[in-house]
Amino acid sequence: MSLKNDAFPSSVAFDAINSSLESDEAERKDAVKKGNAVFAFTLKNKEGQTESWYIDLKEKGEVAKGGAPAGKKADVTLLLSDEDFGKLVAGKTQAQRLFMSGKLKVKGDVMKATKMEPILKKAQTKAKL
User: Fold this and answer.
1) CA within 20 to 30 Å of 15's CA: 38, 63, 71, 129, which one?
2) How far is CA 106 from the centre of its chain?
3) Are 98 and 106 in contact (CB under 8 A)?
4) Residue 14 has what pLDDT?
5) What are the distances in angstroms from CA 14 to CA 100, 101, 102?
6) Residue 90 and residue 85: Cα distance in Å, rounded?
7) Residue 81: is it exposed, middle or buried by C-beta count within 10 angstroms (0-12/13-18/19+)?
8) Is residue 123's pLDDT more than 70?
9) Considering Cα of 34, then 120, then 82, then 63, what sign does the dihedral take?
10) Predicted local distance difference test score (pLDDT) of residue 129
11) What span, in angstroms and rounded, lies between the C-alpha atoms of 103 and 35?
12) Is the pLDDT reported for residue 127 higher than 60?
């Protein structure tokens, strides 16, 4: 099942992250160990629509649509535009720069948000944004 949403061009990155986690069991376990959190992303497109995805690096090591796994809560939620998320995943900008300029908002544990960058780097190699 694809996580891509045509109204959010950068959402293809969630498929890339998911396939990266699914393709290598050892890498998935390592990501869960390093991440130890549920990361939610709420993206806003140019039309003003919002959509959410989460990356569960607390238990299962999976990516899905929605704010968090059923019955669970995200440890950290990152809110940004679809365009900025695309730049972030493509390595054209840094999360810290987006945060400092007010383009990235973080709800929850800000320190956990810093653990997300290596996971996004994995998507850079697989996603064609």
Assistant:
1) 71
2) 12
3) no
4) 94
5) 24, 24, 23
6) 8
7) middle
8) no
9) negative
10) 46
11) 23
12) no
Give per-residue pLDDT as tens, 2-48: 999 999 999 999 998 998 889 889 888 988 998 899 999 999 999 99
C-alpha–C-alpha distance, residues 100 and 84, integer Å: 13
pTM above 0.70, yes or no: yes
Pairing label, strands 105-108, 50-57: unpaired
pLDDT in tens, 91-116: 899 999 999 999 999 999 999 988 88
> Please, which residues have CB within 8 angstroms of residue 17's CB and are 6 or more apart in sequence?
55, 63, 119, 120, 122, 123, 126
Q: Tell me which amino acid residue 32 is.
A: V
Residues 6 or more apart whose CB falls under 8 angstroms from that of 95 comprise: 78, 88, 104, 113, 114, 116, 117, 120
Check residue 44 and give its pLDDT.
Answer: 98
Task: Count Cβ atoms within 10 A of the Cβ of residue 6 and give its class: 0-12 exposed, 13-18 middle, 19 or more buried.
Answer: exposed
Question: What tokens does 77 get?
Answer: 């939620």
Tell me how long the chain is. Answer: 129
